[in-house]
Each structure stands twice: as structure tokens, then as C-alpha cells.
TrEMBL record:
PROSITE patterns, sorted: SAP_B (PS50015)
InterPro entries cross-referenced by the UniProt entry: SapB_2, Saposin-like, SaposinB_dom
Entry protein name: Saposin B-type domain-containing protein
Residue ranges annotated for the Saposin B-type domain, each copy included: 25-103
Signal peptide: 1-18
This protein's UniProt keywords: Disulfide bond, Signal
Source species of the chain: Panagrolaimus superbus
Chain ranges passing through the membrane: none
Amino acid sequence: MKLLAFVIIATILASVICEESEAPPNETCKMCIRFISKMSKYILKHSGDVKRYGGKVCDVLTWGNESLDKKCREMVNEKIEYIVEKVRASKTSEEICHDIYFC
């Protein structure tokens, strides 16, 4: 009986920890699509500091959601050159997010 209670509590704790550390895939995908949609307008009109603007877009899109903010910053820090290239090549937000494994 004690073992069963321990297993149940451990399972609940593990699911809470996983929820806090990772955004659900569908939320990550939605955030990615919104991010690239907003960035596309900037990328096509400006040649300035895309990373800096991307950080500001992350602030607005993730609105204090720590796990989504982490994924958004990952996109800015690791994928922005690819995103810029594909936006300029007229790929859709959905295609780009799929290409970079956010959807």
C-alpha cells in the first residue's frame, strides 16, 4: 500500500516537473508561427539587428511563460539566420517552423 502511494506521488511530481520544464508541442508550434509572422514583416523591411528585435518579439509573445520564453530565445539564438534566409525566400511561417522542428 505504501509502495502504491509512493508510485502515485512520484508520478504526479514527475508530470509537474515535466510540465514546468517544457512547453507543450502545440503551444511551441503556435508560438513559432506567431514569432515568424511578426519577424517576417521586420525582416522584409529592415536589415538591422534581427536578433535584438527577435528578443523583443519573444518578450511580447511569451508573456512571462518561462518554458515558451526558453523555446523562443532558442529560436532567436540558434535559428535566426535560417529564419531570415527562408523568410526572404518566401517560405511560410508554418513551413519554417516545421523545418526547424518547432511544429
